[in-house]
Amino acid sequence: MKIMDLDLAKVPHELLFILHVLKEEKTTAWHDQYKQLLVKVNWDTFLQLAKHHRLFPLLHQQLKRMDVSCIPDYVMRHLKAIYQQNTFQMLHLTAEMNHLNQQFLSNDIQTIFLKGPVLAQELYGDISLRTSCDLDVLIPLENLGEAEALLIKLGYEKDDYIESILGDWTWRHHHVTYFHRIKGVKCELHWRLNPGPGFEPGFDDLWNRKKKSSLLNETVYMLGKEDLFFFLATHGARHGWSRLRWLVDIHCLLSQEVNWHQVVNLFNKYHFQKIGGQALFLSKNLLNSEIPLEVNSLLEKRSHQLAQQAIFYLQSMVNLHNDPVPEDVSDYHGKHLFSLMSYQQKTLYLLSCLFPFPEDAETLPLPKLLHFLYVPLRPFLWAWRKSTKPLSVKVFKG
User: How far is CA 17 from CA 41, 75, 322, in A?
Assistant: First the structure.
């Protein structure tokens, strides 16, 4: 199928320059366009975007290989400095990852590392070429209490608390965060790949398809490549691809040996076809990725439209991780997330809205033994809140 172009007219010139540098096409046409883009670059904006999108390690590597006589010295010095800082950070995370892995293994807790150093090694062949601020550990839900106790014993403190009614946290949320103040390391314990409601591969399936990371001699496991592509696409889409590092991950994985038929089956089975197609359209348009023929069934018109919608997040430095998220961005993101859902997912989401939320307990406090009454009372409590204050749009984090 012919990959349709996206409208990038409102994307900042400096971001177009960054994308061009990352394309790695050293042809005459590439060099000519590089020189044309270079002339108009605002270097302060370039550095801001390089840091916002977490792409400075790759840009440092790429630009070192090229003629940088037209790039101000302070830009190259700054890229080198933050690249070196990131290298130390990734080495620090690697050591802590190895330590946590040994502790979990000694306590018979099955552990899969989702991102961090293992992902950097798998996709880039060098942990210094990707940034990471934490360790994401996927474990079986039934081991969550044991894993939490172990982290606390190791000096971690719980950094967030999930409010829940009738046990909805197990499917509405997907991780809990812990922080080690002395080591300066954040660890997220995941029991799902993404927040619910929604269907996705269970831990046992992911464990059966896991692979051993090549980063350490120890037995450190990560997602198998097919599950990894599914996870990276759904994770990036959930955040609007607002950081291009996630899309560069997709670009790198597209060049590796992957069972693409199995990837398509995963997207079909769990009703994420539109998200799979969106990731492919974005990667092809922005990074000139080679798209395997086996995934053509995901390249539908609706996925192209969703890819175009995601360009909104590249037109300014949208940050969905820090509150408060601007109201216009929050509104757009809430609608975009809903448009990403399949009919089955939208139905499940709307049904989940009938299940009690913690806000219901705040509106009408009841003894725990009577919490079941929040189910029939939910529509009335929602209507009461809506009549007294504006309804806010929640932006999922993590």
Answer: 8, 14, 27
